[in-house]
Amino acid sequence: MTKASLYQQLKQDIRQGVWPAGVALNQQKLSDYYQVSRIPVRDALQQLKAEALLVMAGKASLMVPPLTAAEAEELYQIRLQLEPMALRRAFPQLTFSIIGQAEDLLHRIEHDQNLSAADRGALNWQFHLMLYQASQSPHLLRLLHSLHQQVERYLGFQEISLNYADTSHQEHWQLLELLRAQQLDAAVALLQQHIQQAGELLTSHLRQQPA
């Protein structure tokens, strides 16, 4: 397993809950689990720490941080500001080809029975990003990429724990229909509703969890 593939596998395992929040992870433990040397493990851990997917747990270990309502609320409020801006900037450059590619992603989410819940969460974000990339706004896209690194675990959790997938998928189709019909204001309003409702559902659920 290469350093890059170990990083991707470890990241996927974090999304899917293989390594639960609060469990200390050290190089030897992961080296034994993935049957690799400690050097690629160290590099993967440092990269995941830089993305805030792992935090320090004592002097020599890292752990997956817990999902919290406060963090989820903050992240979704930021999404609510940045993503509508990205869609507005992208709109003049959106082509039928881009919309068609976004439709292909939705068809895959809908029909690929081998997708895990975490995979669907990742494809959900890929759908959004495919539209935003047309904005030709590199600084905004970098901010969104950084934001996604923080939101990613929550997207996977939403797919696994909350009955929101069908609603989310339906709204994605509606969003594409509005964009294809050149109804930008209605599309932005739907996107805002989409993000706000998902954030409220997630934070409400997390607040009900035992401490």
Question: What would your notes on this structure say?
Answer:
The protein is mainly alpha-helical and 211 residues long. The chain folds into two domains: 61 residues, Arc Repressor Mutant, subunit A; 139 residues, Four Helix Bundle (Hemerythrin (Met), subunit A). The protein is 72% helix and 3% strand. It has a two-stranded antiparallel ribbon. Helix 4 packs across helix 7 and helix 4 packs antiparallel against helix 9. The chain is globular. The N and C termini lie far apart (37 Å).
Strand residue percentage: under 5%
End-to-end Cα distance, whole Å, is 37 Å
CATH topology name of the largest domain: Four Helix Bundle (Hemerythrin (Met), subunit A)
Instruction: Please summarize the sheet with the most strands.
Output: 2 strands, antiparallel
Which architecture of the largest domain would the CATH scheme give at its second level? Answer: Up-down Bundle
Shape: globular
| Secondary-structure element order, N to C | HHHEEHHHHHH
Give the low-pLDDT segments.
none
The SS-based structural class is mainly alpha
In which order are the strands of the major sheet placed?
1-2
Radius of gyration based on Cα positions: 18 Å
Query: What's the CATH class of the largest domain, please?
Result: Mainly Alpha
Total domain modules: 2
| Structure annotation, total helices | 9
Total E-strand runs: 2
